[in-house]
Amino acid sequence: MTRDLAALTGTEFDLVVIGGGIVGACAAWDAAQRGLSVALIERGDFGSATSANLFKMVHGGIRYVQHADLPRVRQSSQERRVLLRIAPHLVGPLPIVVPTYGHGLKGKAALRVGMGAYDALTFDRNRGIDDPARRIPRGRCISRDEVLRAFPGLDQRGLTGAGIIHDGQIFNPPRLVLAFLQRAAGAGAVAANYVEATGLLPAEGRPRGVRARDHLTGSELEIRAKVVLNAAGPYAERFLTRAGGLRLDPAGTYSRDACFVVPRRLFGGDYALALQGRTSDPDARFSRGARHLFVVPWREYSLVGVWHVVYRGDPDAFTVTEADLQGFVAEVNAAYPPLGLTMDDVGLWNAGLVPFGDNPEGATNLRYGHRSRLVDHAGPDGIDNLITLIGVRFTTGRDDAERAVDLVCRKLGRRTPASRTHMLPVQGGDIASFDDLLGDTVARHSARLPAAVVRSLVHNYGSDCERVIRHVDDDASMAESLGDSPSIKAQIRHAARAEMAQTLGDVVFRRTDLATGRFPGLPALAAAARVLGAELGWHPGRAEQEIDEVVRRFPRPVRGGQDDALTGGATG
Question: Is this prediction's pTM over 0.85?
Fold first, then answer.
């Protein structure tokens, strides 16, 4: 992947995609593998906004059983299956313990019925997954004693046991976005980060591409294309307004979905725990009471969330305040008192904007968004070659993108092959058995790299991990670890040379594991900045500026500041 702005302006593309999150990356890959010429631009770094800040879960749709929404159950299960198959290094099964109480809808019998219905509806959930370690088991129930041995701090009043369900978990969401985009680039797509679409190029009443601005140099450019796909997520409507006073009808409603990271495992074992929160779901036909909060093991960390609040302001202006985090911590402690979390336990917060349901002002019990939004502007606006796609879930981004590219092909009047993105591995995903690849790679490099480093490389790069290790062959200093993380200098060099990294934030938050769960320490940041600066030719003083920018993204206890709003979690 090379950032070549001349390649963006030197031709007319079949399609230009605005937005480099999961939906845009999947659309670019889908269109390129069908033979279309594709450009993609992203105003920040690839996968740096909502796609980087989700709860790391690939939802298979079991929650939609409560809503009797069978199409969403099927779509979610299908897309979870796809990701487990095409990205086995980045997506794996996650067991979740759901405690049961009494004999009503919160009881074991009701949950057993719900799990049985879900298993029946998702009978093909493992079809095509050859690696047994990536298959989703059936739901099952365990006894009261069994659940208390694992989670002794649960409220025991009326506790009857628990159900165990399995969903998916993403090891590194921004790298999954990048893996789709790398496949697109390999198929001929031209992509550039830090390039923002500022308007449409008019031509006889219809756009012939987009105007754009390079945020790194300030230069303006024009990208010509037959069709424009606006896949900018929460920024999509703002682009439409700026591009020509266009509006979606009705306007979208968005939720600031937030979680936080604790830089240690809160429970032993690999099970996530579902806890009763304080709000309910008014759309659920079969409600077990309050919505669940989850405490989830992720790498060596714990993820806690998710909290929702309707947000109607500028998508660049939302934040998570210290008061918000204090409320989150208090709610989790009330649900499981032995945790005894404090603000000092919060290593990082993540938050992003996602489409939400229609909720009255000030509502406590909120309606979720239910469908992604695909808008053909030929109808409402008379613009035949402009499409807007706003995805509702990371899990279904690939499927949403496929439907959008189907529409693009119809507009081009071109007969193209059907999408194959549901069966083609993402970059690094050509793996028969992940555990075998992991074991073989650890053994092969045990003499020069610690096992923890190799495991991290295999998870992040999959079958491409040897490309990173070659930097160590060329320069032994590239094997040096960055702080106490499993990330090494070779990854920084690789990110600059092959993955279009432009800033220190790009490498520490999205190309490596260095700062995805906690503050890595100033020495580690300085070492990473030296490697990246040497690759990119930074001027004296640039490294210090980049380090300061990264430090500001962490909560107050890390940097000792006095800001009321913790600007440290959102990586967008």
Answer: yes
